[in-house]
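Quick one:
INPUT:
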């Protein structure tokens, strides 16, 4: 069982690993980074999308767990409260970043177009293939925001059981959506197929499914035999192998992505369940937990400093890593944390009931 604490065990550690994968995938293209010439940076390049995929699964799991507990407790979902919490959790750090980028663009320190700004502000970067580098990572934030807009309302309207069937159906249908684009819109494959909601959100759907069946899973003896088996190590290995397949090939779109999503979901379940193991101890260690806690700010701010097309000193290794750390910490402590404290004060006034908040102490997100 998951221990009673302010957070679900291991998930912050997994977030830390995810953001490390994203950063490494960008660092290998930075001049001065000590990558041996014999190693092809392309091997590391594909770790970035894998890290984002882990973020997606975790997000689907956390948000759905929160919504399902509210549905079970109150027989309904307070959409106003959900969007209130999400707004003050996500918007302040993100829009502060966009505002800083707009200011830097005025001094020609970064390159942004008017369309970049429009798509960044409206969370539609994933449908804008001409996006510039500094806001390019907004595609994944756009996918998540689109998920937040759709999923809670869907659960409220059709309930848990039908909602989980929808999530499963989407997971099964997504490979064929990708295949349809491959044949009908081949120009989409390289620059759009890996970013659009309908072709990437099946990873989030797997997190939703895990949240919906987790209580049932942990009651099954076969589940515990699987997660305690020494052969489980093959699953993350298979995920890594699948992530290295050429992303513009049919076998990647049809098979490798579902394998990654299933494998990551299994690994998330393993980490939550085995949080007292040696690996669990590492994932729940203070350094990894802290990196996981600030991972949202890190993800937002790593992009401009890990720009392989920039000649600025702040984009050169190793100063760029120092700048990522400083900007992320500033964002976390000066923007993210104050907005969360303000959210709590405002929430107590707008939504005074403590009933649900007392029950779901393990799902603060």
């Amino acid at each position: 069982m998951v221990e009673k604490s302010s957070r679900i065990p291991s998930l912050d550690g997994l977030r830390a690993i995810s953001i490390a994968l994203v950063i490494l995938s960008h660092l290998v293209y930075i001049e001065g980074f000590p990558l041996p010439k014999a190693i092809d940076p392309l091997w590391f390049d594909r770790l970035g999308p894998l890290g984002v995929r882990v973020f997606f699964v975790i997000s689907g799991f956390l948000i759905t767990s929160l919504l399902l507990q509210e549905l079970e407790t109150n027989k309904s979902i307070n959409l106003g409260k959900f969007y209130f919490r999400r707004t003050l959790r996500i918007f302040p750090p993100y829009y502060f970043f966009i505002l800083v980028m707009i200011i830097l663009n005025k001094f020609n320190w970064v390159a942004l177009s008017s369309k970049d700004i429009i798509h960044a502000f409206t969370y539609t970067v994933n449908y804008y293939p001409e996006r510039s580098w500094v806001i390019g990572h907004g595609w994944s934030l756009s996918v998540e925001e689109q998920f937040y807009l759709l999923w809670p309302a869907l659960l409220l309207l059709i309930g848990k059981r039908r909602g989980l069937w929808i999530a499963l159906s989407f997971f099964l249908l997504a490979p064929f959506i990708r295949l349809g684009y491959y044949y009908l819109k081949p120009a989409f494959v390289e620059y759009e197929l890996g970013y659009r909601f309908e072709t990437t959100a099946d990873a989030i759907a797997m997190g939703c499914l895990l949240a919906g069946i987790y209580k049932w899973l942990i009651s099954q003896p076969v589940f515990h035999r699987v997660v305690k088996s020494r052969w489980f190590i093959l699953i993350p290995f298979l995920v890594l192998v699948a992530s290295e397949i050429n992303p513009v090939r049919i076998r990647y779109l049809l098979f490798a992505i579902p394998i990654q999503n299933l494998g990551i979901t299994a690994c998330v379940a393993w980490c939550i369940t085995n949080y007292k193991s040696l690996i669990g101890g590492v994932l729940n260690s203070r350094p990894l937990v802290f990196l996981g806690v600030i991972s949202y700010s890190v993800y937002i701010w790593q992009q401009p400093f890990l720009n392989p097309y920039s000649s600025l000193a702040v984009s050169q290794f190793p100063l760029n890593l120092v700048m990522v750390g400083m900007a992320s910490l500033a964002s976390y402590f000066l923007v993210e944390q104050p907005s969360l404290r303000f959210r709590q004060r405002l929430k107590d006034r707008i939504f005074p009931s403590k009933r649900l908040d007392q029950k779901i102490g393990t799902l603060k997100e």
